[in-house]
């Protein structure tokens, strides 16, 4: 759990985090893209307190009112055909569930050999066994030893590390992996890649949707980071103009407590019989009450639109910072998520040392982020709560720009010493 900037969280409110000694930061972490509605919103606290006052802390898989209200809200907000909801606890669990559903569907329509789950390089889908095999970061799989050959990754069409972002390249890469399209049970991708906050091209996604239809493969959008307004639309996949068969939600669903969900086509979600996909803490009433209050807060306060407007400002200001430094080669993202990608200009390798210096110096100036992420640890990830004001965006980017200048100067001085 080590490796984060040395801040001892004591309290948090809105887009601010405080320690016990009077220090305060504009939060560019949202925990880890959790607090979409903001930290410590009174409506979420009151909703949780209401369930606590009932003395109902758990109900296993038995129904409870908070659970019913939440799944009805999700059903009403999600587009057709994503109308069946299964509640879980973490994003990794939802990915495991999606893998199970892909392979079950594959076996039904194509037999036992239709079991391949295709995902993308540099993707992150969680830390459990199946989710890490679906992930596209080889170093995270070293512990596994014997990898399931039914998980295959192809390059992600970011237009940077993979310059060829055509869908034809997807088909070629799949063929080069030795995979026949008829054996693909599902294609899974993060709506935007969590490491760099990069999106696939719209035309690529539309062709991928058509390809999945033709192959009777399920299209899965991992919305654990992208959902609930983060990208300036309620659901991240809206940017593509396509509908997945399954979606995975987590993080920002409750702005606070552990909860996750899989939403999908009813005929896919209903393949397994009753009692076969239970989870100990599924639909916990306290967490469900928090999630319902968080979603209603996001909608009532117009935070999806604020994410779009404040996000436009954020990306414009970050572009100004990037233009001054050759080490910043891309600023990916949409809405209130951004990935500032840093490299060594001489080698093109990820500049992890500069990235960490930027995060540390930003923290010293009152802007809080988690440690660098992405390929080689060379990406500074920016993800403030959706309630952040435009004034706070300007203030925090100004501090960030100072941190970048100082980090660059420090590294340059070290290289000439």
Written description of the protein model:
The protein has two domains: 142 residues, Aspartate Aminotransferase, domain 1; 258 residues, Aspartate Aminotransferase, domain 2 (3-Layer(aba) Sandwich). The protein has twelve helices and 14 strands. With 417 residues, the protein is of the alpha/beta class. A seven-stranded mixed β-sheet has the order 4-10-9-8-7-5-6, sandwiched between helices. Strands 1-2-3-13 form a four-stranded mixed β-sheet. The longest helix has 27 residues. Helix 2 runs antiparallel to helix 9, helix 3 runs parallel beside helix 9 and helix 11 packs across helix 12.
Q: Quickly give the structural class.
A: alpha/beta
Q: What is the H/E order?
A: EEEHHHEHEHEHEHEEEHHHEEHEEH
Unreliable parts: none
> Based on CA inertia axes, which overall geometry fits?
globular
Q: Strand order, biggest sheet?
A: 4-10-9-8-7-5-6
- Mean pLDDT over the residues: 96
Query: What's the CATH superfamily of the largest domain, by name?
Result: Type I PLP-dependent aspartate aminotransferase-like (Major domain)
Task: Tell me the distance between the termini.
Answer: 34 Å
Instruction: Count the beta strands.
Output: 14
